[in-house]
Batch of 2 targets.
Target 1
Amino acid sequence: MIIVLKADVKEEAIEKLIDKISGQGLIVHDIKRGGVGRMLGLVGDIPQALEDSLDRVDIVESVLKVREPYKLSGRRFHPEDTVVSVGDAKIGGGNFAVIAGPCSVESEEQILSIARDISNSGAKFLRGGAFKPRTSPYSFHGLGLDGLELLKIAKQKTNLPIVTEILSQEHLENFAEDVDIIQIGARNMQNFTLLREVGSLKKPVLLKRGLSSTLEELLMAAEYVINGGSDQVILCERGIRTFETSTRNTLDLSAVPVLKQKSHLPVIVDPSHGTGYWYLVEPLSLAAVAVGADGLIIEVHNMPQNALCDGQQSITPEVFHHLMKRIKRVYEAVHEMK
Ligand code: PEP
Ligand code: MN
């Protein structure tokens, strides 16, 4: 619900109204938008008696019901873009960044070599799975906490912040300590307990779209994280299940402008899981930049043919280097025209 306030009301009267509403367990967003006037955005389960009384408050011009169920992740209460920052590295609000690295951390030599290469090519964050959600119980499931230690070594040597996936609440403390951006994978997008608990760490979160989730469901998942305590959420389009079998998933690039219209959160694209083939990573990365993505997450491996996970969709550091140059050119071309 949005309460539109009359023009020139006293600050004191607004404070009193905010206190009255928050006293009933609701979150109040004070929205100050030039030209549109002052508004209060209410989030939570609004008691009928409060709703009925609002029309009669003398500083209230009108009361509007908001249709969208995503109040915290939506743009309506939060018109400005959110910028997710880790030190100097930023994503969103005009800051474009590339996250790159292997599907999974395999050894110190592997992660260090890839981290150095992608950093030299301009990546701003290092990705690498320590805990891997695999379809088969017999596949490689990552090095676990040892993998996290290797990511820390790579961070020390390159200064690249770490992005890695959490699979279970059991590791919340380790992630709170060592991880810069906590990834929630597609398979856990609707693990509501995990979403809330990860949110409570108040750290940046990379939330990937579920395999068969609508954009509204993705925004509601982000709502859980923000409600849990972290407003630093990055949304990620990583392809969805369709009838098409030529690619691993169908990369839904229309998700980018749609999400950016509905939400203030940064939106990035994963062309690696989105297509499943290394040679499709370049064209889809460029297309993602052209439709306005705030960043990309790309799987890079120094020896894709020997990778323990997702080698067929991983590009080499050489291809990545070339791709970064082309990304820059498309980014400049698109943003120059604005
Ligand atoms: C990954 O990023 O390695 C991964 C498992 O992604 P997703 O959750 O999108 O499948
Ligand atoms: Mn992968």
Note: Residues 118 and 335 are 24 Å apart (CA to CA).
Target 2
Amino acid sequence: MSNFKCGYVALIGKPNVGKSTLLNTILGEKISIVSEKPQTTRNRIIGIKNLPESQIIFVDTPGIHKPKNKLGEFMVKQSYEAMEMVDLIFLMVEPEKPAEAELVIINKLKKFKKPVVLVINKIDSVSKQSLLPLIDQYKDLFNFKEIIPISALKKDGIDRLIESVNLYLPQSPKLYPDDMLTDQAERFMVAELIREKIMKNTQQEIPYAVAVDIERWEETEKLISIGANIYVEREGQKIIIIGKKGERLKKIATEARLDIERFLGIKVFLEVWVKVRKKWRQRDMLLKSLGY
Ligand code: GDP
Ligand code: MG
């Protein structure tokens, strides 16, 4: 079995602690970070780091950044559910004594039961002596897996940070192609989740070559409305996927929707259509959705 690792890391912390700077440092110049969209509570993929033996997917979880906002129970719950998908949490802080905002976030983290690494950024701006008492104070607040001082700006401590990530990622093949752009990653994953449910519900009857194309993607605060086309090569395959009275397709769509909701951390309205189209390939769908 391959030792390749792949998983999700949530990067959380107050505005201005250096999250974007850290991502730029880790991801390098080739990948430009998606500009900040209006805040919703769902997870958003903000960068994918491809290493020889691992793929690290960084997600943003805005719900926890703003613990005091007045969004309703629904939104808070969604945000918590979204946290369930990550393998590791980076809590990024300034090299200062923990204050109210940090305490609130740490209290929330206790509920997730996920491994958390504390990343103390901007250590270039303080003396080494001031770090030790700080580390002790944070140790008293939470059972961090590790406390790693870094300077995202001066690229100090980054290797150690990456090493610690690798400890917590599960063994898994790559979830995204190497050349995936971060703002396409969610749609790609949604298409993959639908494809997976088709495979699961049709067993050997349908060849592996089924393509899913995300045709519609509309976001509101509370919901994402997604329309997907399932492409097959022959009429017979279409009939199998749809099933008697459309029952199989309904099951596929329901199972896919539940997984997609878990993945995106928000309610999803999903519509799927099965269409016959010869000589399509998943790769072509991807290129099309990327605008080629
Ligand atoms: P974000 O809001 O968490 O994404 O923070 P940014 O990455 O936008 O950084 C906020 C400010 O902190 C910027 O002016 C950065 O240049 C600065 N900054 C980020 N990392 C470091 C660091 O390691 N050392 C110092 N001195 N400044 C940093
Ligand atoms: Mg930022």
Note: The radius of gyration is 21 Å.
